[in-house]
Amino acid sequence: MKLAPILDPNARKPGPKPAQVDLHKVFFIGTSLWLLLGIVCLVLVITGHHLVNALVICICGMIIGILLLIWEHFNRWNYRRLANQRQ
C-alpha cells in the first residue's frame, strides 16, 4: 500500500470525470415501480391479505419519487452544468 497519496494530496491520480446522467428517467422508472407494487398491494389488501404496512411503504415510495421528480425538474440545469464543467 502506497502512503504517498494519503500523505501528499498532490501525488494522487486525478478523479474520474463525472458521467452525464438523466435523473428524470431514473426517478420516473422508480416511481412507476412503486406505483405498480402499490396497485398489487392494494388488490391483495382488498382480497383480504394483511399487507397494509406494505401498501403504506409503497405510498411513501411514490411520494418520495414525486418529490424527487419535482426536485429534478427545478435543478436539472445545475447538475448538468456541474457535469459539463469537468469534462
Topology summary:
Blueprint: H1 4-7, H2 23-46, H3 52-85
Helix pairs in contact: 2-3
Keywords:
mainly alpha, 3 helices
Descriptive overview:
The chain crosses the membrane at residues 26-46, 52-71. This is DUF2530 domain-containing protein. This protein is an all-alpha fold and 87 residues long. The chain has one domain (24-85). It has 3 helices and no strands. It has helices spanning 4-7, 23-46, 52-85. Helix 2 (23-46) runs antiparallel to helix 3. It is elongated and about 65 Å long.
Summed up, the helix count is 3
Sequence of secondary-structure elements:
HHH
Shape: elongated
Average predicted confidence as pLDDT: 87
Domains, number:
1
Strand content: under 5%
Quaternary state reads single chain
Largest sheet properties: none
Low-confidence runs: none
Distance between the termini: 30 Å
The count of strands amounts to 0
Give the class from helix and strand content and strand pairing. mainly alpha
- Proportion of helical residues: over 70%
Computed over alpha carbons, the radius of gyration is 21 Å
Organism: Bifidobacterium margollesii
Transmembrane segments: 26-46, 52-71
Protein name: DUF2530 domain-containing protein
Keywords: Membrane, Transmembrane, Transmembrane helix
